[in-house]
Structure formats: structure tokens, C-alpha cells
């Protein structure tokens, strides 16, 4: 039994490293996303505007999916970081494209228009799923 415990504990440093890097990247994405989007997400969320929480949460999930895929498929931490940056860029471009299609998207979310928030959330998740699937080791 001690050999089995030692075997599992041997993977703990890699888990801590990748999980910690993943959490930092998720926070970085959230910070960049909040900074680049036209509406004040945290202010809206604190004011109990569900559309803001839904759009932001969907965007976070849309980034976390390929981040998890990159973590699973990467051969090194540097490889993981490279693919994480690709995922980050793809999600930011996705929101930019949505803003082109719906020019007043930020106002709509700020006005708690759920259709706009649902669109942002689901498109972000859909793109995240495709992004994750496209990452091959």
C-alpha cells in the first residue's frame, strides 16, 4: 500500500503546477475580458444584473474548456501556456465578432437583456468546445 500512495503522490507537484497555472490563466482571462468589454461587469453583477453574470460566466466557461483541453494534451508547461494563449485570443476574438454583429451588445447586457447574454454565453461555450477539440497533442 505505501508504494501505491507514493505513486499517486509523485504526480502531486505536476497537478499543483498545472492547476495553479490554469487558475492564474483563468483569472488573467477574466481580467482582460472585463477590461476590454464595454460594460462594467462587476458593477452590474453586484447590482444583481443576471445578464452580466450569464455573459461573463459563459465567457469564462468558454475559455476554461480549451484551457482544460490544453492541459490534458500538452507535453510541457510551455506547450500548455502556448495553447492557453491561443484559447484566450480565440475567446476575445469571439466577443469582438459578436460586438460587430450586435453593435450595442454592451448596452443590451447592461440593460439586462437576457437574449444578448444567452447568445454571448452559448457562443462562447460553443467556440470553446471547438477550440478544445482542435487542440491535438
From TrEMBL:
InterPro entries the record matches: DUF350
Residue stretches spanning the membrane: 6-36, 48-68, 80-102, 114-134
Membrane found in the keyword field: yes
UniProt keyword annotations, A-Z: Cell membrane, Membrane, Transmembrane, Transmembrane helix
Matching Pfam families: DUF350
Predominant location: membrane
Annotated Gene Ontology cellular component terms: plasma membrane
Domain of life: Bacteria
Bilayer disposition of the protein: Multi-pass membrane protein
Subcellular location: Cell membrane
Matching PANTHER family: UPF0719 INNER MEMBRANE PROTEIN YJFL
Similarity comment: family membership: Belongs to the UPF0719 family.
Protein name listed in UniProt: Membrane protein
Organism per entry: Azotobacter beijerinckii
Amino acid at each position: 500500500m505505501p508504494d501505491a500512495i507514493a505513486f499517486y503522490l509523485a504526480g502531486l507537484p505536476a497537478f499543483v503546477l498545472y492547476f495553479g497555472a490554469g487558475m492564474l490563466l483563468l483569472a488573467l482571462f477574466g481580467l482582460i475580458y472585463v477590461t476590454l468589454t464595454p460594460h462594467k461587469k462587476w458593477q452590474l453583477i453586484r447590482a444583481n444584473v443576471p445578464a452580466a453574470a450569464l455573459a461573463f460566466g459563459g465567457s469564462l466557461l468558454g475559455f476554461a474548456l480549451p484551457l482544460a483541453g490544453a492541459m490534458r494534451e500538452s507535453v510541457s508547461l510551455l506547450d500548455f501556456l502556448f495553447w492557453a494563449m491561443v484559447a484566450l485570443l480565440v475567446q476575445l476574438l469571439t466577443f469582438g465578432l459578436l460586438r460587430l454583429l450586435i453593435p450595442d451588445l454592451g448596452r443590451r447586457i447592461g440593460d439586462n437583456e437576457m437574449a444578448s447574454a444567452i447568445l454571448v454565453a452559448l457562443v462562447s461555450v460553443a467556440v470553446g468546445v471547438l477550440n478544445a477539440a482542435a487542440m491535438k497533442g
